[in-house]
């Protein structure tokens, strides 16, 4: 039976990049409160740790529901750029390997495990270098909003003038303050653990691609959005569980002030273990894993649909331009 699914070119890097960016934005908006909870937990001291539901109630009571979305604008911008860059380079590298396989006369042009890992490493490294400044600003905003509300509460408790009018940080304001107080180098704090974390998407996408290939071989048809949702969730659960200590260290390096002692990645890990035990490396893992898994699942579910719609829209616009 003929498929009604439109035939679309799988080597169109820009369309894949736009679809990845769109899917990432939708996923980010749907799961952002979990990012807020996880990020704040990662940078809290052990004494200040708050259980999950208590943390939700605390943020809503102090800051309103909007407190769960602190830094959303920079996060949406960040995920759109991150996914665009990642998918562009991933698809470019995949196209290179597929063309090489065709020239070599290989029976299957599907990426091998090693090829998928190399593609993920190239795409991930390019993405980290280009987008680390965005995530430094986002982490500062996410944590600074809670600090401002704590300051207001403390001042009120000691009889000081209520300063509820203290301005909440904006993306541009946070960026300008960072550059003014700490210099441009502050935008690249945490870049080393971020580069180590390139292994996260490598593990995620390699596992996803291999499970997808196995599914398509067995079922003799393409994966559906529902199947992609669950395969994406499994891939991200595996990757995030393994790399979470580096995510914690990266968040702490992002919020380190200019006057604080600079730490390397290994030093930061040793400090956390010394002060809080190995459990300190996994602070906030509950909401983070939940958010990461849901984000990846939604992304994989939406991406192919958005890709096809992007290609169809571009074709329609091209036809109209020719007729005009």
Structure commentary:
It is a single chain. Residues 1-11 have low confidence and may be disordered. This protein is mostly helical and 324 residues long. It contains 10 helices and no strands. Helices cover 74% and strands 0% of the residues. The radius of gyration is 22 Å and the shape is globular. It has helices at residues 13-43, 52-63, 72-103, 113-157, 171-182, 191-196, 199-219, 225-254, 265-276, 285-323.
Reported for the largest beta sheet, the result is: none
Helix content class? over 70%
Shape: globular
Q: What is the tally of beta strands? A: 0
- Tell me the radius of gyration: 22 Å
- Enumerate how many helices there are, as a single number: 10
Helix-strand pattern: HHHHHHHHHH
Low-confidence stretches: 1-11
Class inferred from helices and paired strands: mainly alpha
What percent strand?
Answer: under 5%
Distance between the termini: 37 Å
- Chain-averaged pLDDT: 78
Summary keywords:
324 residues, mainly alpha, 10 helices, 0% strand, disordered N terminus
Short description:
Helices cover 74% and strands 0% of the residues.
List the helices and strands and how they pair.
Layout: H1 13-43, H2 52-63, H3 72-103, H4 113-157, H5 171-182, H6 191-196, H7 199-219, H8 225-254, H9 265-276, H10 285-323
């Amino acid at each position: 039976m003929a498929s009604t699914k439109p035939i679309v070119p799988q080597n169109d890097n820009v369309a894949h990049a736009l679809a990845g960016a769109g899917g990432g934005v939708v996923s980010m908006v749907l799961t952002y409160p979990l990012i807020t909870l996880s990020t704040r937990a990662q940078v809290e001291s052990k004494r200040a740790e708050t259980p999950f539901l208590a943390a939700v109630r605390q943020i809503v009571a102090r800051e309103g529901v909007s407190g769960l979305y602190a830094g959303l604008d920079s996060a949406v911008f960040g995920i759109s750029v991150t996914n665009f860059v990642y998918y562009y380079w991933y698809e470019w590298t995949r196209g290179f390997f597929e063309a090489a396989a065709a020239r070599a006369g290989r029976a299957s042009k599907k990426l091998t495990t090693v090829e998928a890992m190399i593609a993920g490493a190239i795409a991930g490294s390019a993405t980290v270098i280009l987008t680390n400044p965005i995530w430094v600003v986002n982490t500062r905003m996410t944590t600074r909003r809670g600090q401002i509300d704590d300051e207001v509460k403390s001042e009120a408790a000691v009889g000081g003038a209520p300063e509820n009018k203290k301005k909440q940080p904006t993306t541009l304001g946070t960026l300008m303050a960072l550059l003014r107080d700490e210099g441009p180098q502050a935008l690249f704090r945490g870049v080393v653990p971020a580069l180590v974390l390139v292994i996260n998407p490598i593990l995620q996408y390699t596992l996803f691609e291999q499970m997808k290939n196995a599914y398509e071989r067995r079922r003799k048809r393409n994966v559906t959005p529902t199947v992609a949702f669950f395969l994406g969730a499994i891939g991200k659960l595996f990757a995030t569980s393994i790399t979470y200590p580096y995510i914690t260290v990266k968040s702490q390096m992002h919020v380190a002030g200019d006057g604080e002692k600079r730490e390397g990645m290994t030093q930061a890990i040793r400090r956390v273990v010394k002060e809080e035990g190995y459990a300190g490396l996994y602070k906030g893992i509950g909401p983070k894993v939940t958010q990461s898994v849901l984000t990846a699942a939604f992304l994989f579910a939406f991406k192919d649909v958005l890709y096809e719609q992007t290609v169809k829209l571009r074709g329609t616009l091209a036809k109209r331009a020719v007729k005009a």
